[in-house]
Amino acid sequence: MNKFYLSSLLAVFVLALIAWVGGPSAPWLFGIVLPYLAVILFVYGVARRVMGWSRSAVPFAIPTTGGQQRSMPWIKQNKIDNPSTHLGVFIRMALEILTFRSLFRNTRMKMTHEGRFSYNLEIFLWLGAIAFHYAFLTTLVRHMRFFLEPVPLCIQAIEAVDSFFRFEISYDAIQFGLPGVYISGIVLLAAVVYLFLRRLFIAKVRYISLAQDYFPLFLIMGIAFTGILMRYFTKVDIAAIKELTMSLVTFKALSFKVPQGIGPLFYVHLAFVSTLLIYFPFSKLMHMGGVFLSPTRNLAANTREVRHVNPWNYPVKVHTYEAYENEFRDKMVEAGLPVDKMPEESAEEEKE
Amino acid sequence: MNDKKWIVLGLLIFMALFLSPFLYNVVTGAKAAPMPEVVLTEKAKAAKQCVMPTEFMRTEHMQLLDEWRLKVVRSGLRDFTNTEGKTFNMSLSNTCMDCHSNKADFCDRCHNYASVKPYCWDCHIDNPQGETK
């Protein structure tokens, strides 16, 4: 037992309970006020956070490199891992953001039985992360069917691809597969459960996991779980829900009328999503924006060619030796101290 | 080195994407888009009631169809008795589409709204009697 994941789990349960009870009795609050509030806070929070980042300086050029830097023409440069041009940086950033390349290189140190250290490729975190993020993206895009009428062809195409695999389980006891199964939803839930179990069972990871790591995982687990529940098991009235979501995005919901017949489970789903949006800008989930601003990735590794000036450098008032000597030359000479530049000849003559 | 303009640009692009459902609907001046009225045929109107209560049909008709398919294809049963004791032949084309023979104005209208495309019509005919829609 661990207070960090227990408290997070409890928070998510309480949230679900509140929405379950509150949704049907105050639909305008949970169906209209909460989502609007969430969107406003999300937009404000993200903008504030990113603008804050934009004001902070990059004092040093600290690109990390994974290959040969540009040097002599006969030494082959690794143009992507150690880019010296904007194009190279762009490719490196694109690969990082789209394929999580630095996570892919994750290694784990192990002691072999001969008592030597070895570094092994540790691929599962990358696998879980990439499955999770792409499933989330697909799910998100798929949900556009609730916000656009008529549903554009590209959204329909994504739905068609997503439901390409037909899983149908048909027995007296269990009926599953109609409506068609969206693979992204299943992958999303599986991946987020894996990411949680990883924190739970790998001792080293558990040691560094706090409530702020568990809470978003539980929240997303809740979102995926309630979504799957609504689609395949305890059905909800999709048409009524689309009426609500359409009125939200066309601002017609400001009349605070919610269509009848929306089940409580939908309010739980919506409350989870709203909470995620509100929580997002204040949490480590902001790595969504932060990844674009990682200085070890987005700076060209051309520190030998271009001088990186810290924008925080202010003009320092200096007193050079030259100015110092000019000021005190006569006194220095009197005291017999060596000077760079002898005083005027007249003075010299006097001395002689 | 100052990348503020790029950061602001990126932020604006992200916000435009995030708010795109709002922007799209406001720019195109879309209506609230309530659920389209489904049209009942004369036959359905005369029957007054669907095979199950309307709320159930609205949310679970696909699962009912799945159950029917299972019973017919695997167990060879063909009769379905609903909660009110009325008996129906478990058939997509001969029962559902007999009452709802106006597929375009009934099933399709709602399905287009919810963006679902049942593949059943690859095999099953939607208008067994060939009635005018």
What order do the SSEs of chain A take from the amino end to the carboxyl end, as H and E? HHHHEEHHEEHHHHHHHHH
CATH architecture of the largest domain in chain A: Up-down Bundle
The Rg value of chain B, from CA coordinates, equals 23 Å
Share of residues in strands of chain A: under 5%
The helix-strand sequence of chain B is: HHHHEEHH
In the sheet with the most strands of chain A, the strands line up as 1-2
The radius of gyration over CA of chain A amounts to 31 Å
Could you explain the architecture of this structure?
The complex is a heterodimer of chains A (352) and B (133). Chain A is mainly α. Chain A folds into two domains: 3-314, Transmembrane di-heme cytochromes, Chain C (Fumarate Reductase Cytochrome B subunit, Up-down Bundle); 317-352, no CATH class. Chain A has 15 helices and four strands. Chain A has helices spanning 3-25, 27-55, 86-99, 101-104, 124-142, 153-162, 183-201, 203-207, 211-233, 238-249, 264-279, 287-290, 295-298, 321-334, 345-351; strands at residues 107-111, 117-121, 169-170, 175-176. In chain A, strand 1 and strand 2 (117-121) form a beta hairpin. Chain B has one domain. Chain B is built from six helices and two strands, in the order H-H-H-H-E-E-H-H. Chain B has a two-stranded antiparallel sheet with strand order 1-2. The longest helix of chain B has 22 residues, at 54-75. Chain B is elongated and about 75 Å long. Classes of the chains: A mainly alpha (352), B mainly alpha (133).
Give a short summary of the structure.
The complex is a heterodimer of chains A (352) and B (133). Chain A is mainly alpha-helical.
